[in-house]
Amino acid sequence: MLPAMHTDSRQIRPGTSPRLEHPRPSIFPTGQMLPFFLTTLIFFIWGMSNNLTDILVQQFRKSFELNLIQAQLVQTAVFLAYATMAIPAALFMRRFGYKAGLMIGLVVFGAGTLLFWPAAIWGHYVPFLMALFVVGSGSSILETAANPFMARFGDEATSEQRLNFAQAFNPPGTITGVLLGTWFIFSGIEKKPPEIAAMRVHGTYAAYLHGEILRVVPIYVVLGTAVLILAAVIGLTRFPNIADSSESLGALPQTLDPRLRSSIGRLIRNRHFMLAVMAQFFCVGATIGGWSTYIPYIRTYTQATDRTAGYFLTGALVVFAVGRIVSTPLMRFIAPDKLMGLYAVINIALLGVGIALPGMKGCYAILITSFFLSVMYPTIFASGVRGLGDDTKLGGSLMVMGMIGGAIFPPAMGWIARAEGSIALSYLLLAVAYGVIAFYAFVPPLIRKRAWR
Fold first, then answer.
1. 244 vs 53, 206, 262, 272, CA distance in Å?
2. Backbone angles phi, psi at 451, to 5 degrees
3. Tens digit of pLDDT per residue, the chain (453 long)?
4. Collapsing DSSP states into helix, strand and coil, what is residue 203?
5. What is the CATH classification number for the domain harbouring 233?
6. Orientation angle between helical segments 376-385 and 125-152, nearest 10 degrees
């Protein structure tokens, strides 16, 4: 006699068989919410830092009397560090794991922010660029650790949704950073040319500019202190060991390890991954270039003050956050790549308005592009590292290296603006970037997944 089968209370119609229900996998890791929360908090913190640099571009342009190309070196210093530190960060994490990477990244990041104090006392531009390079190095380590960690911290089927969820905490950080910069870095004092001339005559203008420089110190010192405290908390928290099979490479220098060379070779031959790195280069370039040039665009084509322009940038970041909130649930119904491609095409059209109609209409059109930009970075990143297995850490570092686009696009936009006499025309570079992202999104998957011959 067969043992009794246990069924639920619902009746099964004759001639039918019970349907097995497969619950949709959760985006959250079961029983690991504390490390998940602490890692998500990092997304908020580096969001604050990344968009404080948009305020610094305008503040340093004023305080050090720079042209737009020189002022955009703020972004170059930060994002050049991404290209410099991404591979060393990946090698470090292959040996010591994601948690160690997060801690080291926070310590380096915090040290860079504290360097703003002596740089401000010294009162020269180059020390600030050096401090920003250290901050960017910390951010590079954090991104190399946090993004692939979050993508693999749960079911692989929900990696894009989980990373988009974590990245959704980045926009509130960017909004907070820009608001704090607008309130506490921008003084609201706008000297007219006759006033400046009179201050130069009386020898007080240099002291005024130095006072403007010193306004950057309090925010960065507080941010650095908070980051170092977070590093200590993570050090005391148990994290899951998401290990690659090649995690321990022994005592030989990792750059000589044959497994590392093999891993690099696999990644280079992976067409899907390399196209993702290319798309990430243009995505980050469009993001940083667009936001860091937005305040100069507003100041050039409208009567807005620095603080009013700062509020416009804040509005763009609010729209960016709303884009994340609205778009992440849509990915349950629309393939993430296809949604991103549609958004890229819409942004090309909006930039056309910003270029053709510089002024308030152009300001609002460029502001709206942030909504459609919102899902691009995490979607490209999660798509690029999916299925890499043992190569995930190294692949994640190469994806972070793609962020060097943020070092190249801002000064390139400054050069176009200077050469053509139009900041609006510099946004053509962003239209090209969104075209590349649309290509990545819509190119047939079979082409992307083949290996290079």
1. 35, 55, 14, 21
2. -85, 150
3. 334 434 343 444 444 444 444 556 666 766 678 888 899 999 998 888 888 999 999 999 989 989 989 999 999 999 898 778 877 887 788 788 889 999 999 999 999 999 999 999 999 999 999 999 999 999 989 988 887 788 777 666 666 677 778 877 887 888 899 999 999 999 878 888 888 889 988 889 889 999 999 999 999 999 999 999 999 999 999 888 765 534 433 333 444 467 667 777 788 888 888 899 999 999 999 999 999 999 999 999 999 999 999 999 999 999 998 998 898 788 888 888 899 999 999 999 999 999 999 999 999 999 999 999 988 988 998 888 877 877 777 787 788 778 889 999 999 999 999 999 999 999 999 999 999 999 999 886 656 555 554
4. coil
5. 1.20.1250.20
6. 60
Q: Which residues pair with 319 in a beta bridge?
A: none
The total number of structural domains in the chain stands at 1
Residue type, 84: T
- Tell me the backbone φ, ψ of residue 270, rounded to 5 degrees: -85, 100
Q: C-alpha 333: how far from its chain's center?
A: 25
Residue 338 domain boundaries: 34-240+257-449
Residue 359, sorted as left (phi over 0), alpha (psi -120 to 50) or beta, turns out to be: left
Within-domain flag for 164: yes
Residue type, 273: F
Neighbouring residues of 163: CB distance < 8 A, sequence distance ≥ 6: 147, 150, 151, 378, 381, 382
Q: Which ranges of 181-305 would DSSP assign to H, the alpha helix?
A: 193-202, 205-214, 217-235, 258-269, 271-301
Task: Report the predicted TM-score, pTM, of the whole model to 2 decimal places.
Answer: 0.78
360 neighbors 309 (Cβ within 8 angstroms): no
Q: How far apart are CA 18 and CA 255, in angstroms?
A: 56
251 located within any domain: no
Tokens of 335: 């393939």
Beta bridge partners of 178: none
DSSP-assigned states of every residue in 25-86:
PPSSPTT-HHHHHHHHHHHHHHHHHHHHHHHHHHHHHHHTT--HHHHTHHHHHHHHHHHHHH
Q: Residue 358 is which amino acid?
A: P
The DSSP element (H or E) to which 167 belongs, if any, is helix 159-167
Rounded CA gap, 353 and 429, in Å? 14
Distances 56 to 216, 240, 291 between C-alpha atoms, Å: 8, 38, 12
Residue 78 CA to residue 428 CA, distance in Å, equals 23
CA distance 40 to 33: 10
Is residue 383 situated within a structural domain? yes
Instruction: Please give the radius of gyration of the chain, using alpha carbons only, rounded to the nearest integer.
Output: 24
Examine residue 423 and state whether it is found in any structural domain, yes or no: yes
